[in-house]
Amino acid sequence: MAKDHDHGHHDERSLERLLVDIHNTLSETERLNQQRHTELIATLKGRKRVTFTFGVGVPQLKESIRMPLEIKITNEQQVDVTVSPRTDSGKPAKLDGSPAWTVISGNSQVVVSDDGLTATLVSSDELGDTIISVKADADLGEGVEEIADTVTLSVIGATAKNLGLSAGTPVPKPVV
Questions:
Q1: Contact (Cβ atoms closer than 8 angstroms) between residue 95 and residue 136
Q2: How far is CA 152 from CA 121, 131, 132, 139, in A?
Q3: Burial 73-83 (b: 16+ CB within 10 A, else e)
Q4: H or E stretch including 131?
Q5: DSSP per-residue codes, 88-125
Q6: How large is the greatest C-alpha to C-alpha distance in the chain, in angstroms?
Q7: Are residues 145 and 95 in contact, defined by beta-carbon separation less than 8 angstroms?
Q8: 3-state helix, strand, coil in the chain (%, to 5)
Q9: Torsional sign, CA 110, 113, 114, 117
C-alpha cells in the first residue's frame, strides 16, 4: 500500500514539473514575441510612408448571355413554359403588354394563357424539333424595346413501358 501511495505522490510531482515546464515555455515565447514586436516597430519608424492612389471607373453590369430554353418530351406529352421577366441583375421586371408566342418551325403546338405569361407546349405526333419564339415589350412607356427568347422543343418517340398482355376467349382443348 505504501508503494501505491508513493506512486501517486510521484505522479503529482511529475505533473507539477510538467506544469512548470509549460509555464516557462510560454513565458519565453511571450518574451521573444515582445522582442520581435519591438524590433519591427523600430524598423518601420525609420521608413518613409507609402501611399497608394487608385481610381474606380463607372460600374457596369456584366453582359448577360441569353441561352435558348431546350426541352425534351415524348410525342405523348405536353409541358408548361412560364415567362418571368428579369433585369440584368436578376430582379423581377414588368412587361408592357403580353408576350407573343410564335412557332418558327416544327409541328408542335403552343397554347397561350390569357395573360400570355404561360404557354402549354403540346408535342406533335411526329418526332423532331419545334422552335418557338417568345417576344415582349420591355419599355413600359410609349416606346418599344423588344426582348426575345427562343424555346427548342425536342419531341422524341415514347417508349414501351409494359408488354400489354391480353388473353383470348377460352376454348376447349383438343382431345387426344
A1: yes
A2: 10, 5, 6, 26
A3: beeeeeeebeb
A4: strand 128-137
A5: TTS-B---SS--EEEEEESS-EEEE-TTSSEEEEEPPS
A6: 121
A7: no
A8: 25, 30, 45
A9: negative
Give the tens place of pLDDT for each residue, 62-93: 665 566 899 999 999 999 999 999 888 888 99
The amino acid at residue 143 is: G
pLDDT of residue 166: 93
The values of phi and psi at residue 82, to 5°, are: -120, 140
Sheet holding 78-82, edge to edge: 78-82, 118-122, 109-112
- Tell me the pairing of strands 128-137 and 118-122: unpaired
Burial of 165 (0-12, 13-18, 19+ CB in 10 A): exposed
The amino acid that residue 20 corresponds to is: V
The single-letter code of the amino acid at 134 is V
Find residue 70's DSSP bridge partners.
152
The model's pLDDT over 85-106, given as tens digits with 9 standing for 90+, comes to 988 888 899 999 899 999 999 9
Tell me the C-alpha distance between 88 and 70, whole Å: 21
Check if the beta carbon of residue 126 is closer than 8 Å to that of residue 76. no
